[in-house]
């Protein structure tokens, strides 16, 4: 593998041209054109690689990436404007401001589940912040990776963006190089590898990781509506979504009705034979399929709906499980597939204790109309993001920073958060030499006597 030409990428930044808004707008415009002009091919590649429905791919990959770029373009000037700071009397006369400036060369490493969106959105943020980029698509989406490798040079010059394809070996080699920021989306296991490699060069990292995002439901809500929102968030992309509800914690009084509504929502969305539904995705590859079948078979409990699977088609039916064994692997690791365990809890207190005893999740969803329940979740838990009455959609709002906390990651992005995350916040002070008001600080310290 010949590595990327980091010297050329870094030189673009040190030349000063990327500090200006014109350069940033031009690169964002080029990235936008790439996505729009090749949307059909990109969607086709993602659909073939991941096995997701084309319309879903358009919505969650190309459409949201273009939206993100438009949001960045609309606000770039406002977000990057120097922020004046008022100084204490002792330092006056002087002026000061905080200036966001490019960090340099940003490495973006993407996973396979939203292989285009999770590449394009961080890259857009990096370019908006005036950086140059190296893009590393996932090796588990080979068609998309090849397409990105072919298209990027047609829109972005090689001193602005370079694509490196490959898997563990190539990424390991890449991580030995010195970047100015690494933006990684993927598993906690690889996130740790990335952070260790970054430490060698004291390179800052953004880690967008995963985890088990819980959903709490009690009997104060419209359980039909709650079930539809949970089923949609869970089974989109066949459950292979970092913020998908991993499992449900339901109070005893709501359990039976919620289970019935979950079954009804699965039938409503995917029909009586979900295998024939054009709107249900497949599992990305045989390895993931085997892992999910093993989790399902080791879960214990009762299959309320679904459970069917077919390795040849990488099919796994939208599955709801009740009364699973709390010690089973399915309740220990991130499920990342279309299997939804529903666990019964006595009340919200028990749910909170369970959530608080585990790693901080990437998302937490609460379906309750009771103010004290909402308040208790707000105060006593933490998670990357939180939604009341909905699942997943908070990720789609470019106005909300998106990121994890603790084991679900560090740093955040989308919209303004991307520009802030991928810029250096430089403090700048400008003081006239005369009058020399700093004289009071110089030795001999007679001037300080009696003042401190
Ligand atoms: P992964 O960690 O296996 O791979 C991600 C990237 O890391 C790939 O580009 C891969 O080439 C590279 N990589 C893999 N092994 C490596 C190694 N040993 N050294 C260096 N690089 C290596 O993740 P995945 O399976 O592609 O994605 C699934 C995970 O990503 C889930 O945990 C999911 O929750 C998480 N995820 C998080 C978000 C988020 O925004 N927070 C979004 C999507 C997925």
UniProtKB/TrEMBL annotation:
Aldehyde dehydrogenase domain mapped to chain residues: 24-427
Keyword Oxidoreductase: yes
Active-site feature positions: 208
UniProt KW keywords: Oxidoreductase
Transmembrane segments: none
CDD domains reported for this sequence: ALDH_F3-13-14_CALDH-like
Matches recorded under SUPFAM superfamilies: ALDH-like (SSF53720)
Pfam families the UniProt entry points to: Aldedh (PF00171)
Family classification: Belongs to the aldehyde dehydrogenase family.
Protein name: Aldehyde dehydrogenase
Taxonomic source organism: Ornithinimicrobium kibberense
